[in-house]
Amino acid sequence: MHYYYDVLGNFDENYLEFYEWEKNDPITFIKKVPLVRISNKDMLNLLTYKIKVKGTWLEKYKEKTTLKNSKEKPLIILFSSTKTSVLLEFQENGEAVYRSKLLIEDENNCNEYAYSMKEIALSYEKLGKLVVKKEFRKAIEDKKILKTELKTLEEEKNLEKCQFLYYEWFGILENDFNKMIKQCQAELTKDYSIKMHQIAELIKLSYKERL
User: Fold this and answer.
1) CA angle (40 as vertex; 54, 34 as ends), nearest 5
2) How far apart are CA 30 and CA 38, in angstroms?
3) pTM of the model
């Protein structure tokens, strides 16, 4: 059995690319994890579908993963196609419940090591497609802040703050409350922009100043 050592995981039901990791994420420190080489096709399926491994294939991998500073031994396997890698955490029934991509240095090292390994045929069933995020994590978070603030402004009929945000967003002085709300809501259906990020940061700052 092959192993990879000292790797970080940021597990999610789907997965986050390394450039979307944040400092407050619950990072898992893995001291030792089994490494398995699979085909490019299988790797694509692991990153696209919820899967369940068939038969007793997982039995030999139980109790093989070691976490740093923990006695817990989750059923985690590191898969590599020599082009990309992913960590999968399995339940006892063979279903993969959590996934994590690697930091770029770990992924490069893992893929290089996998070249020397024999490719295995992974037997699994597809349980349904993973949710595809159409925008980056930060874009989703900022748009959520903006939507929530617009809803609050609308409920409170806060014309003054609405005018302030509208001017910062569009550079226009406007007095029609409904027009401002509708235009801001329409803007959120468009692609994420640096202006959206700036307005979201202003909203967060306005609440910090109240504390």
Assistant:
1) 55
2) 21
3) 0.71
Question: Residue 88: which of 61, 117, 120 has the closest Cα?
Answer: 61
Q: By C-alpha distance, which of 31, 112, 103, 42 is closest to 68?
A: 31
Q: How confident is the model at residue 69 (pLDDT cuts 50, 70, 90)?
A: confident
Give the domain-ending residue among 74, 96, 129.
129
pLDDT digits (tens, 9 = 90+) for 86-115: 999 998 888 999 999 999 999 999 999 999
31 confidence band (pLDDT: 50, 70, 90) = very high
Tokens of 127: 């349980």
**Is 91 found in the same domain as 192?**
no
Supply the range of the domain harboring residue 37.
Answer: 2-129
Query: Do residues 142 and 193 share a domain?
Result: yes
Alpha-helix runs per DSSP H in the chain: 40-48, 104-114, 137-156, 159-170, 177-187, 194-208
Contact 107, 85 (CB under 8 A): yes
